[in-house]
Amino acid sequence: MTTSEPVPADAPRAEAWLTAMAVPGRRWFSLSGAFLTLETVFTIARWGALAWLAQGLLEHRGTSRETVGLAVFVIAGVLALTAEWFAGRLRERGARAVADRARQQLAGALLPPAGRTSDTGPAEAALAMVDLVDDVADYHAQVAPLGRSAPLSMVAVLAVTAVLHWPAAIVLLLTTALMPLNLRLAGLFAQHGADQQLAATQQLNAIVLDSFRGMRTLRELGAVGRRGRTLTAAAERLNKATMSVLRRSFLSGMIMDVVITFSIAVNATYIGLSLLGYVQVPQAPKLTLFTGLLVLLVCPMYFTPMRTRASAFHQRERAETAAGAILAIVEDTPAEAARPALTLPTEPVGVSLDSVRFRYNGADQDTISADVEFAPGTWTAVTGASGAGKSTLLSLIAGLRLPSAGQVRWETSSGRQAPALGACAWVGQQTVLLDATVRDNIRLGRPDATEQQIRQAVEAAGLRAVIEGLPEGLNTRLGEGGWGVSTGEARRIAIARAFLRGARLWLLDEPTAHLDSDSEREVVEALRRATDGCTVIIATHSFPLAAAAHGVLALEDGHLRDARPVNAQ
């Protein structure tokens, strides 16, 4: 099946989606912001105790003052650390809430792609589900609590500075006026680099995944070396993009540090000269060691939220880029693609396609154009060239896709209904075996299956001899690091899974592909046993499998034509 990369969402929609994603974590972010504000208050108290203690030591005020100052310093320090710890835990909880909501939306769009007219490749889907969602969650975890605590924290520091010595507060205010320009500069530096890094990451992921999938073919063609050079070039592009982002971040951070250092240096020079008696501002209160030291200690705290905000600009650009990629996937699933609840029919299911048309985005013609009925309890083979649309046809019948026009309906004695996701059995060309026991692999789709039901599925799939030949029977571990089975045996495990589901409509996508004649015969016999009394629709190139069907349809240029009557015996 041809896949196409989703078109990125435009910036306004991506920004609106990014803002909406903060809602699940809003409560936790608000609490985290409150604790960050408390941390600032306790830290000011700690520095005040330290300045008071220093002045007492230099002036030899006595041990009682030292004891009180030390006690306040320790208590305030413990409270500040406690507030910071709670703020961090609440921030993490809010980030998890945001990530969970974003992954729910992605899962709804990707599993399955209901009604979508483009496919997201596994590499893009994995990147979106893991890394891009984390970019969005990390951005909100960094910015949302800061947005609530920064104004209060800065006002608290400014107020304390103004009470102690108002000229120092004026220097802080004048420096603040330079910050918005620097923050905007940081954002402009980050945007282009984030886009380049995402594109390079997506390309590298796709190349790595394709290389692992096609390793056997690459070896047979002697193309491993060329593929390695392609992989190296993609990795180098990602490295360059990442270094570009780091350089931009360093440059904008350096500009911010220059502004902050200049402000602190001006205040430190002024306070030093005032304490030495060289400078005296009219109407300004006299500086003491306590007030001068405390002003110098709290001045860096005034700039801490700004420094964090500057780094958040880089995180925002990454989050906006991630939001555009995620939204392109989410928005490709129409809102009207509501699906019926999962109900497993208890009788064979007839299938009708009434004037069904399906066309991918950007395609010049319909991939599927069909008017056909599949009678209950029959086997029907659908043949056609590779890429003709056989898998797309099965996905329409299963309800994994919505037709561009027309209707797909399942029919039973109780009436007609739209396809119900998960209510049919699907056996494809590739069988995924988890790193688990044979038993767990078989009951993957029905975790509550009893031992007797598992044994029945084993018998129906013709697996008994295979199970008896394994070292620990059903308890033998499969997958990486476990026992290996042949392709035909893996295919029969898939048949046992489907049988255990109890579905009465089976959709088979090349179930005997890549099998030798003996294995193919065994799989066909297993399918015959497992699907007794069920409706079976098979997409296949196999002549033996087509010959076993009651009817054969040919898919040519998107149109289904009878190769043999569907109801012929």
- Report the structural category: alpha/beta
The end-to-end span amounts to: 32 Å
- Count of extended strands: 10
Approximately how much beta-strand content do the residues carry?
5-15%
Helix count, per DSSP? 16
SSE sequence, one letter per element: HHHHHHHHHEEEHEEEHHHHEHEHEE
| CATH architecture assignment name of the largest domain | Up-down Bundle
- Tally of discrete structural domains: 2
| Rounded radius of gyration (Å) | 33 Å
State the gist of this model.
The chain is an alpha/beta fold.
Quickly list its features:
569 residues, alpha/beta, ABC transporter transmembrane region fold, 6-stranded mixed beta sheet, 4-stranded antiparallel beta sheet, disordered C terminus
Notes on the structure:
By secondary structure, this protein is an alpha/beta fold. It has 2 domains: 11-330, ABC transporter type 1, transmembrane domain (ABC transporter transmembrane region fold); 350-564, Rossmann fold (3-Layer(aba) Sandwich), CATH 3.40.50.300. It is 61% helix and 10% strand. It has 16 helices and 10 strands. The strands form 2 sheets. A 6-stranded mixed sheet has the order 6-7-8-3-9-10, with helices on both faces. A 4-stranded antiparallel sheet has the order 2-1-4-5, covered by helices on one side. Helix 1 (11-20) crosses helix 9 and helix 5 runs antiparallel to helix 8. It is elongated, with a radius of gyration of 33 Å.
